[in-house]
Amino acid sequence: MVKTSTLILILTIFLVGIFPNSVLGNQKIDSHSGIMNSDTLYSNTSGQAVFVEFISDIKLYPNPVKTQLKISFQSKENKSAVLRIRDLLGKVIKEKKPDLVRGYNNMEFAVDQLNPGVYFIEINVSGEKKVVKRFIKKD
């Protein structure tokens, strides 16, 4: 079994490689290993660091998840969006294209067919800005 700190290090290296010049949010330093881990990554499509102000209060639950992943967040504007579930290799597993409304937005993904492991939710708004959050699929 892989230690959690080792998995976090691998994921951090992976994210930095896939999403260069991005800003990692919710940063925490592990006091034992000194490794930074993060639940959220923010970037725009040109790779420039941005502060995502149009989406806030992002929640994925339950996490770890077994059958239904619920996503809730607040949007400051009515915008089109693309939500994708990606595996560790960056492959798109599932995708939805909702129209966001100003205020709270709630969505669900059926994940019961996914293999156990670490996945990412990518929220891309108007083709420009992305938010990436990780979640764990359990048996």
Descriptive tags:
mainly beta, 7-stranded antiparallel beta sheet, single chain, 11% helix, 139 residues, 12 strands, Immunoglobulin-like, 3-stranded antiparallel beta sheet
Describe this protein's structure.
This protein is mainly β and 139 residues long. It has one domain (4-137): Sandwich (Immunoglobulin-like), CATH 2.60.40.3080. The protein is 11% helix and 49% strand. The chain contains one helix and twelve strands, in the order αββββββββββββ. The chain has one helix at 4-18, and strands at 23-25, 28-29, 36-37, 40-44, 55-61, 68-75, 79-86, 92-96, 99-100, 103-110, 117-125, 129-137. The strands form three sheets. Strands 1, 4, 7, 8, 9, 11 and 12 form a seven-stranded antiparallel β-sheet that branches. A hairpin with a 6-residue loop joins strand 2 (28-29) and strand 3. The longest helix has 15 residues, at 4-18. It is globular, with a radius of gyration of 15 Å. The two termini are 15 Å apart.
